């Protein structure tokens, strides 16, 4: 549960960990997230509340959200503001701090939202807001859009998050913080603020070791192009009062300010978000010891109503102890199937009401939902339409439900959505294909619980972790996925789901992956679904017991506490 009340003074004094994230999903109606990173951050905070971790979270306030996605009949994406009223969810605080941006003072205000754990323990989330009357129009706009604007806009936002966030915590009375967790490189400027603070106390030098002792860093990006980099010309213009350029080059890279490198150089503990991703990150940044803590999801949020009721009957206390989901192996198969049937009918009813697609309750339903961008390959399953038709006609009827937003400037991502719409029309009569608009947390909950199979087709090695398949597993939905990210750890072939492509290849081959995908569907998965219900339900139970019990944020947060926060 959540509440709008402020954290009391004594509770502020007990907070020892500050968790900084560019996006953070605390409620599906609060559009301060774009996808996996923000949803994971929200799940992390919820588990911290349940586990009574003395943490405060800091993020940015986005008055117009990421965007509301509207799709026309041809799949053309239109971006609209996500209208919401913050007063319905959180309280504006009286606190103000100032950040120097481009040589002018930018006033930063704050909103506070409290996430309440199972026993009432509260985690405050501070939303930093520049849309205040003291600021000019451009500075006010920094609190409008998540991932909007150009590099200048992004760097200004990151200054508000990192520099403004550290100052705001002090202004609000959070004076016992001894760990700053940078969730991705967006918040790395907080380490520069800490460096400047210590310089004022001891003007003799830059206390890099002192800052490093306070900071931990999680990277979520497995490819070099995904790491934020800013030219030093832009940095000097936006942050003229930052640390001297020679110090900055030493910490953030000689040619440009690499936010990941900055965070690595100013942290004592660094980690990737899956075992393979930790190794990939280590290879990208040799000389740094990059550990791994595999992501998870917040079990109570992602288990649907019918499965929640089922677990309540058979697994007492599963919400507080998701590891106990391993006992799902003993739940009667017919009750597992009945819980799935209810979740599936809810999804089908929603899709048909929204799109008039005529999906059938009994047909094998494959769902795939993620950010619409080229490397995610949402169209891989449409590589050979003749083969897909043949599978649906001969192995058993197949229907597909897809969703996902393309970033406003990602033209190939928008083209991908249009292609799915075009394919859906050409397949009509053989394979029903639906692409739902405005993918968000509420829609994700229906998809991960209502599908028969979760499909994930990223191009290796671009998937750092991925969490959607974990959410599906919590509802007994097996995955068919490329062996990348978390699925390398979660896939036990034929027991928790199925793999696409070769585990040996470091990079994906589109043609080979498509052939593998079709082979698995045609020869194994679809015949199993229609012809061997008992065996299918056994796989569903394995998903819950093996993957649901491990890939959760309770386990993940406990690892952060032991390895990073109090180590």
CATH fold description of the largest domain: Rossmann fold
| Radius of gyration based on Cα positions | 24 Å
Fraction of residues in β-strands: 15-25%
Rounded to the nearest angstrom, the distance between the terminal CA atoms is 30 Å
Rounded mean pLDDT is 95
What does this structure look like?
- The protein has 567 residues and is an alpha/beta fold.
- The chain folds into two domains: 2-72 and 90-296 and 556-565, Glycogen Phosphorylase B (Rossmann fold, 3-Layer(aba) Sandwich), CATH 3.40.50; 303-551, Glycogen Phosphorylase B (Rossmann fold), CATH 3.40.50.
- The protein contains 21 helices and 21 strands.
- Strands 1, 2, 3, 6, 7, 8, 9, 10, 11, 14 and 15 form an eleven-stranded mixed β-sheet that branches.
Question: Which properties best describe this structure?
Answer:
Rossmann fold, alpha/beta, six-stranded parallel sheet, 567 residues, 42% helix
What does the secondary structure layout of this molecule look like, with pairings?
Layout: E1 2-3, H1 9-14, E2 17-21, H2 36-50, E3 55-60, E4 68-71, E5 77-80, E6 91-92, E7 97-101, E8 104-116, E9 122-129, H3 137-141, H4 151-171, E10 179-183, H5 189-201, H6 208-214, E11 215-218, E12 229-230, H7 232-238, H8 245-252, E13 257-258, H9 259-265, E14 269-272, H10 275-284, E15 290-292, H11 299-302, H12 305-314, H13 333-355, E16 364-369, H14 385-395, E17 398-403, H15 411-427, E18 432-436, H16 441-450, E19 453-456, H17 468-474, E20 479-482, H18 487-490, E21 497-500, H19 510-531, H20 533-548, H21 553-565
Parallel strand pairs: 2-3, 2-10, 3-9, 10-11, 11-14, 14-15, 16-17, 16-19, 17-18, 19-20, 20-21
Antiparallel strand pairs: 1-8, 4-5, 6-8, 7-8, 8-9, 12-13
